[in-house]
Amino acid sequence: MTSDDVLRTHLQELRRGTVVVASLTALKSPGYGYGLLQTLARHGFNVDANTLYPLLRRLEDQGLLTSEWNTEESRPRKIYRTSPAGEKVLALLLDDLDAVGASLASLTEGDPA
Fold first, then answer.
1. Which residues contact 56 (CB under 8 A, 6 or more apart)?
2. Residue 102 belongs to what domain range?
3. Is 36 exposed, middle or buried, given 0-12, 13-18 or 19+ CB atoms closer than 10 A?
4. What digits encode the pLDDT tens for the residues 46-64?
5. Residue 54, domain member (yes or no)
């Protein structure tokens, strides 16, 4: 395994959890899958559709997202929104992400925790 492969693997692992946080954040305003892909990409989260759609289904199964079909256009689209339970989980995840950032900053600066 090359050093590029090792780095790619670790970056993928790091991004996996942040995509959940980013999706829950973005879907505080209702949106559909393709629009979410574009929003995430604009903000530096390059996610493959084959990764995002199963994630959306999983978050919906967990009660963190709600969805409804928009049939007003020629092609029906599933519109997702972060649920109240999802907003609670998102707040906890953001707090933890802040704590991890502070811990890493402390390590980087050499300060004891």
1. 23, 33, 36, 65, 67, 80
2. 26-109
3. buried
4. 899 999 999 999 999 999 9
5. yes
Specify the CATH number for the domain of residue 58.
Answer: 1.10.10.10
Q: Which two tokens stand for residue 97?
A: 């992400």
Instruction: Dig out the tokens for 48 from the structure.
Output: 């493959």
Spatial contact of 20 and 59, defined as CB atoms under 8 Å apart: yes
Residue spans of beta strands (DSSP E) within the chain: 31-32, 65-70, 77-82
Provide the domain count of the chain: 1
- Domain assignment present for residue 12? The answer is no
Residue 20 lies in a domain: no
Between CA 47 and CA 26 the distance in angstroms is: 14
> Which H helix or E strand runs over 22?
helix 3-26
> Is residue 32 in a domain?
yes
Question: Is the pLDDT higher at 66 or at 112?
Answer: 66
